[in-house]
Amino acid sequence: MRTSLGGMAKRPIPHELVLRWYGPLLTDPAIRRDLAAFLRGTRKDTYLRAAEQLRTFDRPALVVWGAEDRMMPPRTGRRLAELLPHGEYVEIPDARTLIPFDNPQALSEALRRFIAAHPAPVARGTA
What we know:
By secondary structure, the protein is mostly helical. It is built from 7 helices and 2 strands; from the N terminus they run H-H-H-H-E-H-E-H-H. It has a single domain (2-117), classed as Rossmann fold (3-Layer(aba) Sandwich), CATH 3.40.50. Helix 5 (74-83) links the parallel strand 1 (61-66) and strand 2. The longest helix is centred in the last third of the chain and has 14 residues, at 104-117. The chain is globular. The model has no long low-confidence stretch (mean pLDDT 91).
């Protein structure tokens, strides 16, 4: 498990948490079967096609990325934000892929700023 998660956070991830994440895959044959079927059935361009659909998302969207991400470099996050018509990119310092573990304070601040700048519309009949 060190190989798959080792580079995703700057500090060690508690072993109990890793077991909770991977436990169902390791212990439940149905989950392993479903994962295998998904992986065999996924086209190579699945994620590229899905990313293209982001161009039609008409709401504000926040893309938060770890400045030191080794798995998915920041340029990937910037490209993702550019696909969204109302996308906003925020790079979190001192963080890799698992931002909530590395810099939860900066993540919270980015989320608070975004939510304050883009309040949810009031549904009709609820005001």
